[in-house]
Each structure stands twice: as C-alpha cells, then as structure tokens.
Amino acid sequence: MSFSKDFLWGGATSAHQFEGGYNLGNRGLANTDYLTSGNRQNPRRITLKLSNGERFDAKKSFHGISIPEGAKGCIYDDTYYPSHNAVDFYHHYKEDIKLMAGMGLKCFRLAISWSRIFPKGDEKEPNEEGLKFYEDVFKECKKYGIEPLVTMCHFDIPAYISQTYDGWLNRKTVDFFVNYSETIMTRYKDLVKYWLTFNEVNILHDYECTGTTKNSLDARFQVNHHIFLASAKTVIIGHKINPNFKIGMMEANFYWYPETCNPLDSLRRIELSREWRDYAIDIQVRGAYPNYLLKYFERKNINIHIQPEDDDILKEGTVDYLGFSYYNTSVATTRVNADETGGNVISAIRNPYLKDSDWGWQVDPIGLRVILNDLYDKYQIPLFVVENGIGAVDKLEDGKIIDDYRIEYFHDHFVQLKKAVEEDGVPIMGYTSWGIIDLVSNGGGEMDKRYGFIYVDMDNEGRGTKERIIKKSYGYMKQVFESNGEDLNIRGEYDIYG
After folding, report:
1. Of 19, 200, 251, 259, which one is the catalytic site residue?
2. Residues with Cβ within 8 Å of residue 481, at least 6 apart in sequence
C-alpha cells in the first residue's frame, strides 16, 4: 500500500493572510482587519474604540485579553494592517495558480472570506461580486486540474456580527453562518468537492476569532457550542446539496510525550490532550459531548445553553474526515518551571531530543507519524494533513533563494508520512503544506517568517513589489508531487536553477 493515485498533494492559505483586497468588490470588514502588524519582540494588537471614543489597543494573546464591553474595532490611518492587502492574491490569483500548477499541485486549500460574501454577515442575499471572485478562482484551479479545498471560516468573522450581536456568543450567529455556508456550497457545488467548516476549531477563543468581548469559561464553551452546532448543520445541508461532498473538521493538533515514566506525567498528558484537542474532535466526529468534558463542566460550575434539538443535530452532522495542522510536539510534565519554547498557538515544553526552528518551534518529523496513528486509532475515519511547514528567514541573493533547510524539513516529514501509509496502513486523503506561497504570519503579523516555496517581495510593513520568485524548494516539491510521493530523494540542484 502506497499513496493512492488520487492522493491530494498541495498547499494551504487563509484569506486574511493571503488574499488582500479588503475594501474591493463590496467586501465588508472582518475582525481580522483590525489586527496590526507585529514581530517576535512586539506582539500584534487589536485596535478598538471604546464607547467614550477613547482609543484602545489590545495586545493579541491567545489566552484571552480583557476587551472592554462595548468596544468596537477601529482602523487607524497611522497603523499598518497586514490583512488589508496581504500578498494580494486578489489581483495575482491567475499568476499564483499557474505557479502552483507548475509545481504539480493537485489540491489548493484556500479560505473564503465570509465578509466578502455577506459584507455585514446577517444579510439575506449575498454579494454577487464576492461570489463571482471565488467562482473565477475555482475555475482557474480546475483549468490546471487542481482540486480546491475550501475552508469556510479561517479565524475571520464579519465585524458587524461582532459589534452588533456579540459574535459567536449569540445563537443567531449560527443561523447567519449556515445561510453563508449554504450559499457558497450551492453556488460552487460543481466546482468544489472538499470542504472544511472551521479552521483549528479547538482554539477559537480569541476576540478576533469569536467576536465576543466576554472571556469567561461559560462564554468560551457557549461560543464553542454554537460553532460546533453551525458546523454540524452545515454538514447536514451540504450532503443534501451534493451527496458527493466531502466535508471535514480541522483542528490544531497538539501531542505531548510524557517527560518520564512517572504515572503523573502520563496522566498530565491525557489531561492536556483532552483540554486542548480531543474534546473538539469527539464532538465533531462522534457527535456528542464526551463524559470527561461534562464532568469538567460540573467541577468548574460551567453552564451553557443547549436546546433540546441540539443533541440530534450534533449526532447527524458528524464530519466525513478529520483535517489537522501539525507543526510541533510538546512534553507533559508535573515539574514546575520547566523550560518552555515556541509552538503553534500555545507554548511547548522543550524536548532535548529535538531541534528548534528559527522561531523556537521544535521540529519533530517522527511526531507526524505518531499523531497519524494516534488519531486513526481513536477515530477510525480518513485523515487529511491540511497544514504543516516551517517558518524561516529566507535570503534572496542574486535572484535566488537556496532554502535547503526547508527541503530537509519536508523530506523528513514526507518519509514519516509515507511510513504511516505503507507500514501502518493509516488512510490519509492528502497533504497540504502551510503557505504554499509566502504570506503574512498569523501569530506575529510579519513577512519575515516565511513558509512558502514561492517568495513574495514584501517586507513586514507591506513594502515591496510583491513579485513572485520561486525558491529552490519549489523544485523539490515538484519532484515529490509529480512522483506522487514515490521520489523523496534529496538532490543537489533542481531544474529551476539549472
């Protein structure tokens, strides 16, 4: 058993990091449009105005920041907002898709901007200009035999919904989202087969993702419930629109190795996995709240509003496949003051057996195989690696980017991906690397942290020509994609540089 002939090799992007054109085509503002640039030393900020007109800048923080109630997003003329133009896929999509096709891509994961289809979010009728833009993008993909994989909501939410309805805390937002998802699935039913409802659904806690200023535990899990409900309803409706649709969930995958054979470290690993990962998968794959989460609600005195019909909706609206992002692993320990390092969304405990990336994220190719086996053993549905990659500082010298470190990273991960398929028998639908083309970093808001195989001439403040330049790794990925993962060998130079 090797990679199937229809294995979906490709790359992934998000609208707010890649698309641009924030004020074109009648698009409305999204919460992500209020996120400033930043870097490792200076975190991104959310710019807001209070009810008394006072300017309020809040540092972006995954664990929640105190947003004053009544605060509304505000764009300041003296501030750079990366999402507004991003790397301008809006105007470069034909060129970009042609470059992807030249790499042998079979699948392009992209997100639709909700506020481009429904500018305020609560309208009955969609914005035709927005619908036409994505229709043109999908047709361009099809011209080259590339399958679109569409994320319906990749962190962004229409700002009007946040400011008028308190975002996902309001059950009305479920209906707004379902109207949006039904609209796009109906419009693109013959152009798109593969869908993801929400990006990294297990970590949707921040104001810019949820649209609510409340950050209590009750609010967090009420928001979660509404999102799970919206996803389940979307799955149910989607299968009626086109029975051939494959509609999945997407979670940020976290995995912890117990630091020692101390039983308390193993117990800690289970607790962390349930808190940060498993509960979201259990609800969307198994269709019910797991007992450990209900007991957690009891211990913490968490009360959320669940209507009688919700249980049946969650049960009926289970997903067809499990998509996930994978960047790093961590260590579960009961030690206090353990050495921390970087990681996707949440920091990790340093593992002495692993090396760090430029951003301190520990590189663990074998961890990908471990996670693939772990997820399939637990859930027994097809898996899809929809994000994986390494953020690095690339140097453009004499018109070339020699990114051998990126080639080594992907080679090592592909070896483990292949073993998971061939030796372990894990059914994997596809693999899309993060940032097929350089895009704005979500965490830091900078361009210096580059993931792509195609360089974009742009700096941290949006200055540059936005010219696309292929990197050395482009040639390696072309070799892997066109051989369907059979040829993983690293060679010296590739055809792109002679």
Report:
1. 200
2. 9, 10, 103, 104, 105, 106
